[in-house]
């Protein structure tokens, strides 16, 4: 299908494959997302009544000890409800807006995929951000599991829909998404068009899996400080009633000044464990799902 052509059959395939890929990735990798958020939210010293996590395995074991297995699934409903349509929208937008970044060339380049990915990742934030605020609020709670609707109502009643409520941290979310998807899609598809295509299905699968894994790792390394800032802004503030973390760059500066350079990458281990395999899973499910659907409809 020429890149400039739009067909409803292709759009349906892209939407269905993207939604399925997003849902499967959430179900498999959510516990690592909870651990990542917990590590990002804490400072260098424990607050009153707070448990201090001293690393990924320490966080994992303490969560299991004090909160049980269900603690790893806190905040799962917002992603389940939202990831399917969000991923569907993102992959559809990614595929259809590539034509905007051809720059007069007959073939797509790594920059085409990178810019299309960055645009798709940025635009999804307007729909994503409220769910992220609710999810992180749930994940941050160490003592009880609160219903998703209840958390959303509490946030709206207290702070509304603006930058203090469901819209808080949207600039950090947009910056993180733009950087992540620029690197992720740019590296994966840029390398894919440069490497020879494998005739053996198994070797083709291994090549795609390796590229997707590396793309996820590189994307996380570039976007991790912005993800940390997003969690600090959207999560509970250190002192109730006083807003410390509000703007992205200022939050990163404060964390760097108070906790050191390594603090900008808090939660990196679970992020890499989640997005490396999770990103590979998502991309492969999308590609194989899209290919299968296209063979049936187009």
Automatic annotation (TrEMBL):
<keyword id="KW-0472">Membrane</keyword>
<keyword id="KW-1133">Transmembrane helix</keyword>
<keyword id="KW-0812">Transmembrane</keyword>
<keyword id="KW-0677">Repeat</keyword>
<feature type="repeat" description="Solcar">
    <location>
        <begin position="203"/>
        <end position="292"/>
    </location>
</feature>
<keyword id="KW-0999">Mitochondrion inner membrane</keyword>
<keyword id="KW-0813">Transport</keyword>
<feature type="transmembrane region" description="Helical">
    <location>
        <begin position="174"/>
        <end position="191"/>
    </location>
</feature>
<keyword id="KW-0496">Mitochondrion</keyword>
<dbReference type="InterPro" id="IPR051752">
    <property type="entry name" value="Mito_2-oxodicarb_carrier"/>
</dbReference>
<comment type="function">
    <text>Transports dicarboxylates across the inner membranes of mitochondria by a counter-exchange mechanism. Can transport 2-oxoadipate (2-oxohexanedioate), 2-oxoglutarate, adipate (hexanedioate), glutarate, and to a lesser extent, pimelate (heptanedioate), 2-oxopimelate (2-oxoheptanedioate), 2-aminoadipate (2-aminohexanedioate), oxaloacetate, and citrate.</text>
</comment>
<dbReference type="Pfam" id="PF00153">
    <property type="entry name" value="Mito_carr"/>
</dbReference>
<protein>
    <recommendedName>
        <fullName>Mitochondrial 2-oxodicarboxylate carrier</fullName>
    </recommendedName>
</protein>
<dbReference type="InterPro" id="IPR018108">
    <property type="entry name" value="MCP_transmembrane"/>
</dbReference>
<feature type="transmembrane region" description="Helical">
    <location>
        <begin position="211"/>
        <end position="229"/>
    </location>
</feature>
<feature type="repeat" description="Solcar">
    <location>
        <begin position="9"/>
        <end position="100"/>
    </location>
</feature>
<dbReference type="GO" id="GO:0005743">
    <property type="term" value="C:mitochondrial inner membrane"/>
</dbReference>
<feature type="repeat" description="Solcar">
    <location>
        <begin position="108"/>
        <end position="194"/>
    </location>
</feature>
<dbReference type="InterPro" id="IPR023395">
    <property type="entry name" value="MCP_dom_sf"/>
</dbReference>
<comment type="similarity">
    <text>Belongs to the mitochondrial carrier (TC 2.A.29) family.</text>
</comment>
């Amino acid at each position: 299908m020429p890149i400039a052509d739009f067909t409803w059959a292709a759009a349906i395939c892209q939407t269905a494959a993207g939604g399925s890929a997003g849902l499967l990735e959430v179900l498999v990798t959510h516990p690592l997302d909870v651990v990542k958020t917990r590590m990002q939210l804490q400072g260098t010293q424990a607050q009153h009544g707070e448990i201090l996590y001293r690393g990924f395995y320490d966080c994992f074991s303490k969560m299991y000890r004090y909160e049980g297995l269900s603690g790893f699934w806190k905040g799962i409903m917002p992603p389940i409800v939202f990831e399917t349509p969000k991923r569907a929208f993102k992959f559809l937008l990614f595929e259809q807006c590539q034509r905007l970044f051809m720059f007069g060339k007959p073939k797509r380049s790594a920059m085409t995929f990178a810019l299309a990915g960055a645009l798709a990742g940025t635009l999804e934030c307007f729909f994503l951000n409220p769910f992220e605020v609710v999810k992180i609020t749930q994940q941050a709670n160490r003592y009880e599991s609160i219903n998703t609707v209840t958390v959303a109502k509490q946030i709206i009643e207290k702070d509304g829909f603006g930058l203090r409520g469901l819209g808080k941290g949207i600039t950090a979310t947009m910056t993180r998404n733009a950087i992540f998807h620029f690197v992720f899609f740019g590296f994966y598809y840029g390398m894919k068009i440069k490497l020879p295509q494998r005739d053996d299905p198994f070797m083709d699968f291994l090549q795609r899996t390796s590229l997707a894994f590396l793309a996820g790792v590189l994307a996380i390394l570039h976007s991790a400080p912005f993800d940390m800032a997003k969690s600090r802004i959207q999560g509970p503030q250190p002192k109730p009633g006083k807003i410390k973390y509000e703007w992205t760059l200022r939050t990163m500066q404060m964390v760097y000044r108070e906790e050191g350079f390594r603090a900008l990458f808090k939660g990196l281990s679970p992020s890499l464990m989640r997005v490396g395999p999770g990103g590979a899973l998502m991309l492969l499910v999308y590609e194989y799902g899209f290919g299968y659907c296209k063979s049936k409809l187009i």
